[in-house]
Amino acid sequence: MKHIQTFQVLPDIPEPLSFLETLAGNIWWCWQYDAVDLFHRIEPRLWDWSGRNPIRFLTYVPQNRLEELATDRSFLSHQQRVRESYERLPCLHMKDNIYPFETRDVIAYFSMEFGIHESIPLFAGGLGILAGDHLKTASDLEMPLVGVGLLYRQGYFRQFLDQDGWQQEDYPETDIYQLPVEKVTDMHGDDIEVSVTGPAGEIRATIWRTHVGCVPLLLLDTNLPENPPEIREITSKLYIGDQGMRISQEMVLGIGGMRALEALNLSPAVCHMNEGHSAFSSLERLACIMKTHDVDLKTAMEIVPRTTVFTTHTPVAAGNEEFPADMIRPFLIPLEEALGVSATEILSWGQLPDSSPDAPLSMFVLGARMAQYRNGVSQLHGRVARRMWTHIWPRRSEEETPISHVTNGVHIPSFLSHENSQLFDRYIGPDWQRHPSDPANVHRIDDIYDEELWRAHVMSRARLIRTCRRLMVSQYKRRNAPKEVLKNAELVLDQDILTIAFARRFATYKRANLLLQDPDRFEALLSSTTSPVQFIFAGKAHPRDHEGKELIKRLIHFARKADIRNRIIFLEDYDIHIARHLVHGADVWLNTPRRPFEACGTSGMKAAINGVLNVSILDGWWCEGYAENRGWRIGNGEEYGDPAYQDAVESRALYNILEDEVLPCFYDRKNGDIPMRWVRMMKESMKMGMRTFCSHRMVSEYNERFYQPAAKRLHELLADDASEARGLATQRDRIRTLWQDIRVEYPERQTEGAFRVGQTFRISTTVNLGELRPDDVEVELYYGIVKGVDKLSDGKSQPMEMLEAHGNGQYLYACDITCAVSGRYGFTARVTPGGDDWIRFTPGFITWA
Ligand SMILES: *Cc1c(COP(=O)(O)O)cnc(C)c1O
């Protein structure tokens, strides 16, 4: 059948309920329990059946039910309350609904995935959920942010297991008409299209828009009838396997995304690239700045990176994306004209320093090269990233590698349980949602009566167990399991015993099987009747990760034993819905990565804010979160050379913690069956989550450290016909030509012998700057504790002052240092360009004594 014409039949919503359609059109509803409850009460089972997708849901609610509600006073007053809360969103009162904010300093946030709610399948895992949380939080904080991503027809795969426990994948088609998205059109009502030139011709894409509260999210889509089939496929699946397709996808995201913003008249003040996938956006932004401000490429290069943020999430070098030069080159040729340089030159921006012209292009290198603000996602990951990439900034120490960190956080209103949310309303006041990390709110947690918190948690656990049973039944039904198996599935787990959840991607480094190291000991733990414990596992393996699938299969086989069958289950198709239930209702959140491969991890934070206690390797965020009074650590943060030995040591440590600490603490009941010490730990955990691991803290940190200074800098650079940016470009050229003439003599101290703590002494050196002048450069003393030969650890720098000009480019520099801590110190001196980090950290612009 060809040329099928389509039409859509919409439900006939009675006028008094018309707000329900408005509400369904803005994803804001998903982090407001009052709004979720409003949909839920219409028809609870249908709500679940619809995947909690309000648009889909409303098309199935029977007409007579709608008619009934249209005159139901209690329902209408509930609806009115939600409506009033919705109408308090500040953006609704502004004219332009594409870009609702007053300031024109737009922050464009690019991400390959956005995980906002389970009914909008545009994400695979943690990276996407982080991006979704970023948008929700920006809306809560009324920040002028715009998300840019892709609209996938098949999203990420759905997981189910066969009889043998082997993972199967399914890519169901998403019905766009059941998503809260609409096409962006121009004044005449025509679709706005953008196009990117690929090797096989134009890649055309339309733009869809969805509203995340006040924040618009633009989604590009190449599935247009006028595109050839292979081009329509580009935005079909998230992380498409074929490399050529993947490049096209990232071109559409980066270049197409920038063009979409331009088409909507939104010229971003700051661009944030969430992981390297969107690094091509900076190429288009260069072209855009050149055209709009009539400047050359060199000048644009002084502007774009100074206003770009790049967040890396990958602590393994192999995990960072690379494309072969000959594959990427045809995509760069169309950019030659706009940028006025050769494709070879553009390619070199994404290659390691000193590599050959056919070296692969690394999306990390390109992203890092185009952004002055670079960060990892936890303190430890920042350190790992500096070690991994130190070679990009030659002759700098590892500690000085210019990559910092912003620890991730989670959107508390999205992940707090219903039960806890009610407690927050009562003890903190309903406004807590807007400032969850406010210190005044955090202290309020201590006021909650222990009994009340515990009862709330017991209720969440009961809800989790109920959900698990329902899911197990439907899993078995899909496998056509016999009747008695189905019957048994209705009785799995126990709602009154210690419940431990392990839910995450089944990648080998996450070691889902660590508990299976000693199967007998694990079995003994699971069959205990005095201190009973149960485990819930969930998670997808990457479709091509054979080992990951093996892990799932082993677990399924282990869980079949008759004596433990009801104490250990695997939930298929881990997604936000399952995650939400688990982080609400489990007692312990287990995490066993091989340090340091977990960049951050956010599921443990979701658990923490609900008072679910973490038992985790000291990796990612837990290095910052762990304290004795709010959870447990497995090991002390060691790293091992031998993985088998590591598994043996750490699995023993894990069994010991569970047997000797977690279980006794959980079953130590007094005062009417309340585990007092456990509840105290729950409160500490919740306070930690609110204070430190909340997305409001994270987004504020991005805003204060990166977005605000970058936006301010943009205006300075562009003022006066971009005179400062032009000047900086000229200065950079000058420095490049004259740099090799710089010589620094070994610095000398002017006092002999050893010093006592507190003493101050002077160090001086002579520097030959050639034709450069003292105000072109920064001369610094660099000192630290001597470690080995010619190596300083914990190096610090201190500016030296120019004391005398000796003529012929020779200058005397000196500074005083005060001995703060005893030890054996070494020092040397160096010259870098003066100015901000973007010039100072230019690879090559550093000369040591
Ligand atoms: C929070 C979340 C993640 C990320 O958490 P990790 O700790 O990195 O595993 C992944 N998937 C889902 C569905 C989540 O909700």
TrEMBL record:
Residues 13-120 form the DUF3417 domain. Keywords: Allosteric enzyme, Pyridoxal phosphate. Transmembrane segments: none annotated. Gene3D superfamilies: Glycogen Phosphorylase B. It catalyses: [(1->4)-alpha-D-glucosyl](n) + phosphate = [(1->4)-alpha-D-glucosyl](n-1) + alpha-D-glucose 1-phosphate. The modification N6-(pyridoxal phosphate)lysine is found at residue 606. The keyword GTP-binding does not apply. One of its GO terms (biological process) is carbohydrate metabolic process. The keyword rRNA processing does not apply. GO terms for molecular function: glycogen phosphorylase activity; pyridoxal phosphate binding. InterPro entries: Agluc_phsphrylas, Glyco_trans_35, Glycogen/Maltodextrin_Phosph, Glycogen_phosphorylase_DUF3417. Belongs to the glycogen phosphorylase family. NCBIfam families: more_P_ylases (TIGR02094). This is Alpha-glucan phosphorylase.
